[in-house]
Amino acid sequence: MIQAFIFYLFASLVVLSGALTILARNPVHSVLWLILACFNAAGLMLLLGAEFLAFLLVIVYVGAVAVLFLFVVMMLDVDFAELRAGFAKYWPFAVLLALVLLVEIGAALVAWDMGAFDPGVRAAPTNPHTPNIEALGTVLYTRYLFIFEAAGLVLLVAMIGAIVLTHRTRGGTRPQNVSKQIRRRPDEATRNVNPGVGQGVEL
Fold it and tell me: What is the number of other CB atoms lying within 10 angstroms of the CB of residue 43?
């Protein structure tokens, strides 16, 4: 009884916060509602016994992605009145896309109820006494080891590419000369002047 109450509480809060994320006029409020939705989704994952996914939702999405969204929205000087001005012309496309998604979700639910997906094939054969993180790590580093390493290589190539693109040679810049700065004497670094009243300093 308590588990059912907690499940419906978390589920209703996820749906409500997700709707308010879309309907909020202030983008900062939208990000805050998104953070609330991630927290409640993490609670649902805990109820299902998937504590690793719950930790990922809180640490990655709330602690990094959502906070990054919040800082970007707060720092950018965006004219939201201008953005909302052309929003009405996209309503037909948005309604059509929503109807397509509803049809797809309904078809998936009908196929699920008709038994198109075998639970024995769908469920992963894991020991119920094995912790969720241990079972996930065992599968990840045995069966999907090469795929996991390939994903790491793709991320490594992307990181190296980003570094190469940002550190390319640019003209018209004054690079830092560390050896020249170390050899500089104190009398070359400062200059004592005594300007008169109302006079500035000539550089």
Answer: 20
Q: Which domain holds residue 21?
A: 7-77
Last residue of a domain, one of 77, 102, 118: 77
User: Strand, coil or helix: what is 134?
Assistant: helix
Chain centre to alpha carbon of residue 155: 16
Tell me the pLDDT tens digit for each residue of 57-89.
Answer: 888 888 887 777 777 777 776 666 666 666 667
Angle between helices 67-75 and 27-47 (to 10 degrees): 180
11 with 73, same domain: the answer is: yes
Beta carbons of 40 and 13 less than 8 angstroms apart: yes
Residue 128 carries which side chain, given as an amino acid letter? P
Q: Is residue 111 part of a domain?
A: no
8 phi and psi, to 5 degrees?
A: -65, -30
Longest dimension (CA), the chain: 93
191 domain-assigned: no
Identity (one letter) of the amino acid at 163? I
